[in-house]
Amino acid sequence: MSTVRKVAVVGWGAIGRVVGTALAEGRVTGAELVRIVDNRPLGEAAPVRQATFEEAIDSCDLVVEAAGQGVVREWGERVLASGTDLLIASTGALTDDELAKRLLAAGPGRVYFTGGAVGGLDLLQAVRTLGPLHAVRLTTTKLPSTLEQPWMDEELLRRMRTATGPVEVMSGTARDIPVKFPKSTNVAASVALAVGDLDAVRVQVVADPAAHHTRHVIEASGGQGTYRFEVAHLPDPGNPATSQVVPYAVLRSLAALAGRTGQIL
């Protein structure tokens, strides 16, 4: 008889609500929602008991992070050291090399990452075992309002707010970009995780007032072959910085961890 995974969801926002509700309604075979962690009192909105992080770790064997990069930095190692597994949605935190090394070395809990808003990462991870890719590029296009950041100067904000077409907001590597856009560019870190090198992934962030869909284009090439993946998602209505599909990608990952048959791994 298979063991039911006891799950805590951290963060009751656009991602956590969808994931937690599906778990609470029994829509993920082999997984049960037992705790919710959030820094706001949820009251009757919580389908199970709201708990502190410490209580959640004690009562669960799998924690789903859906609350942002800061939670990964503060709690990731502690979750794994307790023997609890951790599924990370905010992969942007892994642009910190030292944190990434510590998480991958921590245990006895196991750390997993969800692909989130893009596909093809499993193929890139397989391809890299044949040798390094020579060129990897990610272009992310979103609505200007979802990309505004406190560090931006008035000139850049003006260009974004008055744009009538696509405007490049920033370009750099997968090491640089997620730090500057902590809620919008987890995809860059996910691509780098698949490729195995933060500095090998060139990233361009584009603001476009006509971007009714969030678009990610991944292009990679090497001696093994040439690869191109393009996705265009509707933004989440409650949090336009997140694609609507992301919580369902988390649920797919959860189903695999809970042992559902028929999963593509």
Automatic annotation (TrEMBL):
Any one Pfam family match given in the protein's UniProt record, by short name: Asp_DH_C
Pathway of action: Cofactor biosynthesis; NAD(+) biosynthesis; iminoaspartate from L-aspartate (dehydrogenase route): step 1/1
List of catalytic residues: 216
Domain called Aspartate dehydrogenase: residue spans: 164-250
Reactions mediated catalytically: L-aspartate + NAD(+) + H2O = oxaloacetate + NH4(+) + NADH + H(+); L-aspartate + NADP(+) + H2O = oxaloacetate + NH4(+) + NADPH + H(+)
Origin: domain of life: Bacteria
Residues annotated as binding NAD(+): 117, 186
The UniProt record lists the keyword Chaperone: no
InterPro entries: Asp/hSer_DH_NAD-bd, Asp_DH, Asp_DH_prok, L-Asp_DH, NAD(P)-bd_dom_sf
The keyword Nucleotide-binding belongs to this UniProt entry's keyword annotation: no
SUPFAM superfamilies the record matches: Glyceraldehyde-3-phosphate dehydrogenase-like, C-terminal domain (SSF55347), NAD(P)-binding Rossmann-fold domains (SSF51735)
Classification via HAMAP family: NadX (MF_01265)
Name of this protein: L-aspartate dehydrogenase
Lineage, top ranks: Bacteria, Bacillati, Actinomycetota, Actinomycetes, Kitasatosporales
Gene that produces this protein: nadX
